[in-house]
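Subject: Sanity check before I submit

Could someone independently write out the structure tokens for this chain? I want to compare against mine line by line before I put it in a report. The sequence has 169 residues.
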Amino acid sequence: MSRQLHFGEQFVAIDVVGKTKEDVIGMLARQLQQHGYVKDSFLPALLEREKVYATGLPLKKYGVAIPHTDVIHVNEPAIAVAILTEPVQFQMMGSPETDVSVDIVFVLAVKDPSEQIYMLESLMNLFQNDELMDSLRHAASRTEAMQLIARELKLTALEGGERGAAIDS
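---
Independent answer below. Compare away.
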């Protein structure tokens, strides 16, 4: 079975400078919106959900965040990633009173609620691979970062390649 998820270089940003989580989330959401994957309501919904359900996760060496929101704000499923030059503060998932210094942000635009669970599980597996996280954090190019993520999440090219990828399961 193949699950459709749009992911490509256009949705990977490296050496991102952001002062706040809102800066970084906004940049990624606007990228998804510009390509038609999400609705105008996506960014406000992401920011509102982040206030209520924090998504920061402290890993061994890095912090990550996985902002996402309700499927009604999504046109087509996609993922966008920002690798930051300096960490920004997010609140910890499950403990919003605790700050997490986040180095990598994964914005999820998922169309099917069951896919959201699958995608979060897949990302958790990626986060547990310390060597991969080191490589991702220090990726020299968008292509390198995209390939690392695609390989770990078992993504393969869709028809029209540059448009996205499919999750093989």
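---
OP: Matches mine. For the report I'm noting this point. Residues 156-169 have pLDDT under 50 and may be disordered.
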